[in-house]
Amino acid sequence: MAKKKKKQTVHRRSPCPVACTLDLLGDKWTLLVIRDLVCGKSQYKEFLASPEGIATNILADRLARLVEHGLAEKYPLPEQPGRDVYRLTQKGQSLRPVMMSLVKWGLENIDGTEARMTPKIE
């Protein structure tokens, strides 16, 4: 019998939109995976190659969570059976301005930061 996948839920501290957004996106790894998706990364190995060094179990969890909450979609790579690729959904794309604002803020307020984020134009 196939194992049922446990549906992940987001713990909500309050109905405040900022708190709810942070409950979903507020950890370092989720935002970095979204950054990579915005920049056009789509394959698991590409996410693993990011300089921050995300662990495979954390990456798998964050990708599954983004898919579950409708921010990303996963689909098979036709030319490579058994391999999947990820892309932002329309809901996920709506985070682009937020990510660009974080880049801008970091460049203006944190010494030593560099703009390496080049968003993929869609």
TrEMBL record:
The keyword NADP does not apply. Keywords: DNA-binding, Transcription, Transcription regulation. PROSITE patterns: HTH_HXLR (PS51118). Residues 16-114 form the HTH hxlR-type domain. The keyword GTP-binding does not apply. It comes from the Bacteria. One of its GO terms (molecular function) is DNA binding. PANTHER family: HTH-TYPE TRANSCRIPTIONAL REGULATOR YODB, TRANSCRIPTIONAL REGULATOR, MARR FAMILY. This is Putative HTH-type transcriptional regulator YybR. It comes from Stieleria neptunia. The gene is yybR_2.
